[in-house]
Amino acid sequence: MTEPALEASRYSFSREGREILRDLSFAVAVGERVALIGPNGAGKTTLLQCFLRILKGGTGSLRVRGAPLDSYGQIDLARRLAYVPQAEAWIAPYTVRDVVEMARYPHRGPLAPLGPEDTAAIDRALEDTGMLPLAGRFVGSLSGGERQKALLAAALAQQADVLLLDEPTAFLDPSQQADVLRVLGRVRRERSATIVSVTHDLNEALAHSDRVIALREGRVAFDGPAAALAEGDSLRLIYEHGFVVGSHPRTGRPVLFSE
Fold first, then answer.
1. Of 56, 153, 167, 188, which sits most exposed with the smallest number of CB within 10 A?
2. What is the mean pLDDT of the chain?
3. Is 101 a domain residue?
4. Segments forming the whole domain that contains residue 242
5. 135 with 14: CB under 8 angstroms?
6. Which is it for strands 33-37 and 211-216: parallel, antiparallel or unpaired?
7. pLDDT score recorded for residue 248
């Protein structure tokens, strides 16, 4: 039996005396596409950063492909997990291509030059995200949406087993959002990649995820198939707000409207 890509077992995390994550238990299967939702301050970004060891500590356990998180060296962890953070305030004194090249570090020696496989992965990631024409631009000169796509290109070039994305379609116009979602779908199909995305777009979660995990006040408030999110009182309990459920005129899938 294949070990889960990610697993939390009774995991809690506190920072500056405040408990942010509380007794979380769940497992994400290899190749699964999961939307992580919940109100602001629910602990979504914190959870991603704990798996990435950006934030360290906590009680209970986190596991990656069946092994305790603490058992991984940083290079080995980077081969398993790639991260796309929120790009709103992300500025770096590098070109887009520089940023994507740096993401190849798990596959190279400390001072090793780029090899043919590195160059191919970089070019493919830039092309897939539509960033190839902007590869020579400095990150600081980009719009928020362009920076978001540059970070996604870097994560794709890293070729990790799991993509952890923090609002990957934020700041993008509808056409760019559709492009990014198509890229993620293709990466999942072609690489059997596992994708966990924080999103505030509930309709995106319904349309593009197998499963939704919702956090509220640091606890799991919902964990189930995406379609089930629109049933019953789940959303009202998560957000303390009402929603009207409709149907997409072409696909018939549930569509949510705020009351």
1. 56
2. 92
3. yes
4. 6-258
5. no
6. parallel
7. 83
In a domain, 106, yes or no: yes
CATH number, domain of 154, equals 3.40.50.300
The DSSP 8-state label assigned to residue 228 in this structure reads G
How far is CA 175 from each of CA 119, 130, 178, 180, rounded to the nearest angstrom?
Answer: 28, 12, 5, 9
Whether 1 maps to a domain, the answer reads: no
**In which element (H, E) is residue 186 found?**
helix 174-191
Find the radius of gyration of the CA atoms of the chain. Answer: 18
Q: Which residues of the chain are modeled with pLDDT < 50?
A: none
Query: Does residue 225 belong to any structural domain of this protein?
Result: yes
Q: What is the pTM of this model?
A: 0.93
Q: How many domains does the chain have?
A: 1
CA distance 242 to 100: 42
What is the rounded distance in angstroms from the CA atom of residue 47 to the CA atom of residue 44? 5
